Amino acid sequence: MKKHLFTVLSAFAAVAVIASAAFAASPTLETVKKRGNLICGVNTGLTGFSAPDDKGVWRGFDVDYCRGISAAIFGNPDKVTYKPLTGKTRFPALQSGEIDVLSRNTTWTFKRDVNLGFEFVGVLYYDGQGFITRKSLGVKSAKELGGASVCIQTGTTTELNLADFFRSNKMKFKSVVVEDAAEARQNYAANRCDAYTTDRSGLAAQRSVLKNPADHVILPEIISKEPLGPVVRHGDNVWGDIARWVRNALIVAEELGITSKNVDAMKKSSNPEIKRMLGQEGDFGSMLGLPKDWAYNVIKGVGNYSEIYERHIGPKTAIGLARGYNQLWTKGGILYSPPFR
Amino acid sequence: MSEFANDPGRSFYRTENIPQSSPPVSTIGVLGWMRANLFSSPFNTALTLVTLYLLYSVVPPLFQWAFIDSLLVGESNKDCRGIAGACWVLVPKRFGQYIYGFYPEPERWRVNLTFILFFLNLLPVLSDRVPGRTFAALFLVFGFPVVAFVLLHGAFGLESVPTNKWGGLTLTLVFASVAILFSLPIGILLALGRRSEMPVIRTICVAFIELWRAVPLITVLFMASFVLPLFTPEGVNANELLRALIGFTMFSSAYMAEVVRGGLQALPKGQTEAAQALGLNYWKSMQLIILPQALKIVIPGIVNTFIALFKDTALVSIIGLFDLLLVARSAVTDPKWLGLEHESYIFAAVIYFIFCFGMSRYSLWLERKLDTGHRT
After folding, report:
1. Residues 59..78 of B with a Cβ closer than 8 Å to A: which?
2. How high is the pLDDT of residue B152?
3. Whose C-alpha in A1, A69, A295, B137 is 20 to 30 A from the C-alpha of B267?
4. Is B26's Cβ below 8 Å from some Cβ in A?
5. What is the 3-state secondary structure (H, E, C) of B47-70?
């Protein structure tokens, strides 16, 4: 009898251990749940990615990712407190715990990932430095820009990238140094430089407000890698998993053709991956400490990757960015997510 | 004798005044003023002409740009295509955000009420035509902040509006008025402490002043906003706005202390000695003899610091607090309003100007009113 009791007890203990491993708790998630909202660090203003609208509601590509996490946790995309951050304050804010997640067009680099003690949960937007120039110049490629004058923002990595690019192609250039994007655009519009260089998403936004956007062309070359993505702190891996799989859910949903409009119908789909993702099969939600239908809520709340993209920066918006690298891997881009299995 | 003597009716002098003739045309009226002030020497003439030319080449085009060729009402920056002048369309659309930030619309009357009450409370302090100055001044420092907090933040049934929703001109004014209200009394105490004969108090005051003055304001804000929470246990974070406010006020107190000390040092020692001879204790002599004179001397310096403070509030945008400047900047990152930087910034500049100019005029008025003619 005693032996029996021991077996039963140890079995219980084993189950408890397994259960605690499978349903690991995340302190950040607990804090967020107790507080009743997610604090998300966003840009104080970057066209298409994060900006307050006339009513003071935050909108943009990065903002929608925050809303996605909120939907996954609370089933409601609007339980987010936005913390606008500047380039200087974003990392201290994350380190000090002022924010739960940073979704602020942040480039994933070695130092930030390793040295600052952060975890980049994946790439949400593949950006890169490009050039814009006047169509009338007849330039088809950045390699034909030898001798050109180029407007550039001072003190950024773009400045170094530009010098590297021209040196490695054995070309000369004259730099016209400016302070910010608006000033660069005005110099470029006033013909003070032949080309203007910055991240391509920024180029597209600035082009949209030039007098005749169609007279200007963004050259095909991308001279630097700028993988932008959400960031969390080291030390709470489950929270990192939540952030990562919200990102992945957006991409997989597009892959599987699940949109905010058809997600209800998709619940009845016989495709096993859709079933697993939407919580019809398996229990992926509770492994993250989230409700069973967390991914359903994300897609219902903010849409899939393509919907978010088209809403804020796609060809139909004022910014008019083609998908480019940010197309799904099945359609010629490099956007890729591990499977829901 | 002479013929005059025989004719007493004929005098060799005039018996009536010559009618007064007007002064030469060139010294009176507009012409005279211009001659005296604008064309008094070749150099001045040249300066006048150059200035006139500059005004001519700047003002009419600016006027044309801002008022005549401009557009005031529209839906987005698409309406600005073909407009040669300013495209003010975003200002009326975003006016609420410029003034109140993200403060919820139905609750905005509370902001208005707070500032009306503030002004009413300020009136007796600013002008002696309204009675009750001492009480009003004490209430302004000790009572009003509570009233303002209850109204702005919400309590006793008023819906709570967290401080991250405060923004725009409201936030700028909150920062400026808190810093101004508290930095003056703290600054006076620090200045007195620095001149105190008690070594402990003097050392503390000197250390405080030198420490805060030696650090850039941006660093203070940055420390208050992001470094402080690193040392406090998680969940015990004081409100971010409050942290920045305290840092800002401490910083401005240090400057204020040095301005006041300038006034104290300008007073001859005889004043203190006279006060002591009258049997006044330290606080009485300060209150009745020294400070009224010292503060009067440094009115320009104090107001100068106030104006600098008001404009320094724009630095809080660095730590992501949505003050007037950051509202203006973020407004033009909305895809709808891209490319309207000039209009947005000019609008913000006009608001800053109105407040700073008002303060400067008030200080001139105060100086003139308190002028007792004691000049050396």
Report:
1. 77
2. 85
3. B137
4. no
5. HHHHHHHHHHHHHHHHHHHHHHCC
Query: Which range of residues forms the domain containing residue A152?
Result: 129-224
H or E stretch covering A335: none
What token pair was written down for A100? 């739960």
- Same structural domain, B186 and B320: yes
Q: Which residue of A has its CA nearest to B167?
A: A56
Looking at residue B157, what DSSP letter applies? Answer: T
Of A170, A199, A224, the domain-final residue: A224
Is A323 in the same domain as A244? Answer: yes
- Which helix (H) or strand (E) segment holds residue B183: the answer is helix B168-194
**A38 plus A115 within the same structural domain:** yes
Residue type at position B5: A
Does residue B349 contact residue B193 with C-beta atoms inside 8 Å?
A: no
Q: Which residue of B has its CA nearest to A312?
A: B335
By residue range, what is the domain housing residue B40? 25-57
Residue of A nearest to B75 (CA): A54
Same domain for A208 and A272, yes or no, is: no
Q: Please report how the helices A305-312 and A61-74 are oriented relative to each other, as an axis angle in degrees rounded to 10.
A: 140
Task: Kindly determine whether residue A88 and residue B318, on different chains, have CB atoms separated by under 8 Å.
Answer: yes
For A116-159, how does the pLDDT look when each residue is reduced to its tens digit (9 = 90+)? 999 999 999 999 999 999 999 888 888 888 889 999 887 667 88
Could you report the predicted ipTM of this complex, rounded to two decimals? Answer: 0.82
Q: What is the CATH number of the domain that holds A171?
A: 3.40.190.10
Query: Which A-chain residues 119-148 have CB contacts (< 8 A) with chain B?
Result: none
> Cβ separation of A89 and B164 shorter than 8 Å?
no
Q: Which residues of A229-253 are buried (b: 16+ CB within 10 A; e: fewer)?
A: bbbbbeebebbbbbbbbbbbbbbbb
Number of domains in chain B: 2
Q: Is residue B116 part of a domain?
A: no
Mark yes or no for CB contact A44/B329 under 8 Å. yes
Convert the pLDDT of each residue in A47-58 to its tens digit.
899 999 988 899
